[in-house]
Design goal:
Elements (H helix, E strand, L loop, with lengths): L6 H6 L9 H16 L5 H20 L7 E7 L3 E7 L5 E2 L7 E2 L8 H10 L6 E6 L1 E7 L5 E5 L7 H5 L13 E4 L2 E4 L1 H10 L12 E5 L7 H29 L1
Parallel strand pairs: 6-10
Antiparallel strand pairs: 1-2, 1-5, 3-4, 6-7, 8-9, 8-10
């Protein structure tokens, strides 16, 4: 089945579904190129389609993994054990006591196969499973702002809990997710996303994204009182001026 590419994901990240296979991405390119070659797309839509094609091709060549990415590796042999593995600056990862394996050019959908085939070269009767983590910075009205790793199927609302919970002035219904200058989840959509229980992956949140929790707008009562006093003074002065002006005319 062809992977789905929701409109919101295309706007924020034209590279397509996060766990799409190589064949699905290739099919997506073919579909987009047919659309671009036709006359149905308007100028803006054509530009978006071409940008998505370029992003997918870059993804197919370079892979999905970047320095600092992490995944949980579960190893089943005589016993079951799990460990968190980090991608180093060479795009290599260390597993057990065997030689490192590179993730250059590897898609998310290919990680299990790559790790299994590498381990099988050195060890027998070993089965491995991976769970890729999403690295995000959680900023704004939370108790402990900072960088965190979360599983992709975790609900968006759980990110606030991950950062120690909301601050007293947090406005959770206007949560935003940004990727550089692009908006992944806009504040006007976050209330619906949270109500639907959308996960990070369903919202196309990727490693490196910024999650911002805005603050509720506060009324500066001191400034409001000062402005009211100034306005009252000006009104009083204006009334006195009118009285003086009319008294003089009479």
């Amino acid at each position: 089945m062809l992977a789905t590419f929701p409109l919101q994901a295309q706007e924020a990240s034209p590279s397509g579904a996060q766990r799409a296979s190589r064949a699905e991405l290739a099919e997506r390119i073919s579909t987009l190129e047919r659309q671009v070659a036709g006359s149905a797309l308007k100028k803006d839509a054509r530009a978006k389609a071409m940008a998505e094609v370029a992003a997918i091709k870059a993804r197919l060549q370079s892979g999905d993994f970047k320095v600092g990415d992490r995944f949980v590796l579960t190893i089943r042999q005589d016993s079951v054990r799990s460990d968190t593995v980090a991608v180093r600056d060479s795009l290599k990862v260390s597993i057990l006591n065997i030689p490192d394996v590179t993730l250059e050019g590897v898609l998310r959908s290919e990680l299990d196969a790559r790790i299994n085939s590498h381990v099988a070269r050195y060890l027998r009767n070993v089965d491995t499973r991976t769970l890729i983590l999403t690295r995000v910075s959680i900023l704004g009205a939370v108790q402990r702002p900072g960088f965190y790793y979360a599983v992709p199927d975790r609900p968006l609302s759980d990110l606030v809990t991950l950062a120690g919970g909301p601050a007293p002035n947090a406005k959770l219904t206007e949560l935003e997710v940004n990727r550089g200058s692009a908006s992944v989840v806009k504040s006007k959509d976050s209330k619906r996303y949270l109500k639907e229980g959308r996960t990070l992956e369903q919202a196309d949140v990727q490693s490196g994204d910024d999650v911002h929790i805005p603050q509720k707008r506060k009324i500066n009562w001191q400034l409001a009182v000062q402005m009211l006093f100034i306005l009252s003074s000006l009104t009083f002065a204006f009334i006195n001026f009118l009285r003086w002006y009319y008294d003089r005319e009479v």
